[in-house]
Structure formats: structure tokens, C-alpha cells
Amino acid sequence: MAANFRKTGVLAALTAGVMLLAIYMLFFYLPPVRSGAGEVLSGSFRIFFFHMPIAIVAYFAFGIVFAASVLYLRNKALKWDIYARSAAEVGTLFAFLVLITGSIWAKDAWGWYWIWDIRLTTSLVLFLVCLAYLMLRKSLDEDEKRARLSAVFGILGFVSVPLSFLSIRLWRSAHPLMFGGNTGGNGGGLEGAALQLTLLINFIAYFLLFLTLFSVKVQNERMGEELDEKKYMESGESA
Description:
The chain is mostly helical and 239 residues long. It has one domain.
């Protein structure tokens, strides 16, 4: 256990360092971003450089929930349930940040914090699925039943991830698509090494942040399970 704490400490320190680098690059290294017509975009576009990585990390987190849920139903090992619920809690935080940063960007770009665009709507659905997963876990007392039903819900709810990711590729959307084209004709891209490097560093930073929070959550869950088991054994001995 002590070794795990040391590893988490090293990971946290690495995360802090890369996060500071990402912030520096975003505000001091990143050159003015121009549109396809050559116009300099407003400073709010810088939100994209952490809005997109946060969104991808949220997808990744629910991917862990999906994989861990499948593995739990397959072999009933407690560790997979711990991984699933830990990823779900951290992933819900990232899904919430996607909505917040997206709304701030939308206010500057469209004049409204929220419109019922297909990408915004499916992102909201993903967040609500995450909340429903956590609420389901809180509503059940029996450990095995909670883990089993949560695993089923985690597998079924994963459909919200490809639905959100592919939404602006399948339907017309006001949301910009930075990589590849879409049916709405509002494709785009990031040209220039500075822009691409800044985006890459932000991806690494938020991925490391997820790993750090996930690692801390897993350790807390394991300690909680060990404490509950110890209390159960002590109560059995006293009886």
C-alpha cells in the first residue's frame, strides 16, 4: 500500500509539472489563432485547448467503466467494480467540466451559453448518464447486487459515448469540427506546429490529471473495502 502511495505521489508531481507547462504554453507560447479566412480569432478560442482534451478524457473514463463492467460480470472480481466506480466518479467531473467550458465558449461564439445543438445535447446526455450511474450505486445497499446492476448499466450507458463523439459527424451541427469534415460543412483544423504542440501538451496534462485522480480514488475505495471487511470480522468475533 505504501508503494502505491509513493507512485501516486510521483504521478501527482508529474501531473502538476505538465499542467503548469500546459498553462504556460496556452497563455504565453500559443500564437494568435486565425480562421480559414485569415481573421484572428478571439481569445475565447483558447478554451478549445483544454475543452477538447477534457472531453476526450471523459470519453476515456467511461470507456474504463465499460471495460471494467464487462470484466466484473465475467469473473465477479471486486477490483473491477472498484475500477468502474472510481472511473465513473472522476469521469463525471470531467463531463461536467466539458459542459462548463463549452458553455463559456458558446457564449462568446454564439451569444448564448446554451443552444440545443446536437453536440451540446449529446454531451449533456453523457453527463446525465454518468450521474444516473452514480445515483444507482447510491440507491442499492447489497454489495453484490449493486455491483452487478451497476455493471449492466455501465455497459448499456456506454452507448452515449460514441453517440456524443460521432454526433457532429452524423448530423448537422453548429459545433466546430476541428479534425475531419462533417455533413454540416463546418469542418476545420489546426495548422502550425505551435498550435498542435500546445494541444498535445494539454492532452497529456489532462490525461495525467485523470490518472492521478483515478489512482487516488481507487486507493480510497480499496481502503474503504478493507476497513468494512475488518469491521465485519470484528463484529463476527465479538458475537
